[in-house]
Amino acid sequence: MLKVVDNGAGREAGEQLFELDEIARVGARRMLMAALATEAADYVERHRDERDDEGRALVVHNGRSQGRKLTLGTGTVELKAPRVNDRRRDEQGQRQRFTSRILPPYMRRSPKVAEVLPILYLRGLSTGDFRPALEGLLGEDAAGLSPTNIARLTACWEKEYTAFRQRDLAGHEYVYVWVGTSTSGSKTTGSVPW
């Protein structure tokens, strides 16, 4: 259980905000760990009746993975996700695997964090300034936001932007309404006939 202890001394507003951010980060980590544990337990439970020739369960819990950092909107948290040992085999003899839908392998940042990156880029933040800006928001150990990743994402956005600008608009009908003010102060409107 998270305890907040106030020593009674006067605090600066910045210190109180830091505590608030820390509480949010710890809470997000706990909720994520609980969701991952529930997901793994559900997977094991669904396959609990599957046994090998000696009667041993084919799908069992197998401790926790090595810790990895994950950058969320609340900051960066370190997680040790539950592991599952699945010894079942499919028709081709390939081993079955448990893969979390919540936290896929190699994920280092939340999709919401990734969504803000192009916005920063479009607002004029240079790729060299991404790291310091994001460290201020997400903490110094923000995962998945290395200069190489930022450069790779920027190249991807530029390709998407070029494709967007060059898309074919033939065969599409667009309806718009335009409202403005004339120089005399009266409102004017215009539209495309339906």
Report what the structure shows.
This protein is an alpha+beta fold and 194 residues long. The chain folds into two domains: 13-107, no CATH class; 109-163, no CATH class. Helices cover 40% and strands 16% of the residues. The chain is built from four helices and six strands. It has helices at 13-46, 111-122, 127-138, 147-165, and strands at residues 59-64, 68-72, 75-79, 82-86, 177-181, 187-191. The strands form three sheets. It has a two-stranded antiparallel sheet. α3 packs across α4 (147-165). The protein is extended. The mean pLDDT is 80.
E-strand count: 6
Structural class: alpha+beta
What does the oligomeric state look like here? single chain
Physical arrangement of strands within the biggest beta sheet: 1-4
Q: Rounded to an integer, what's the Rg over CA atoms? A: 26 Å
> What percent of residues are in strands?
15-25%
Q: Biggest sheet: strands, sense, closure? A: 2 strands, antiparallel
The rough form would be described as extended
Pick out the low-confidence regions: none
Instruction: Report helical residue fraction.
Output: 25-40%
Total helical segments: 4
Q: Give the SSE order as H and E letters.
A: HEEEEHHHEE
- Global mean pLDDT: 80
N-end to C-end Cα span: 62 Å
**How many domains would you count in the coordinates?**
2
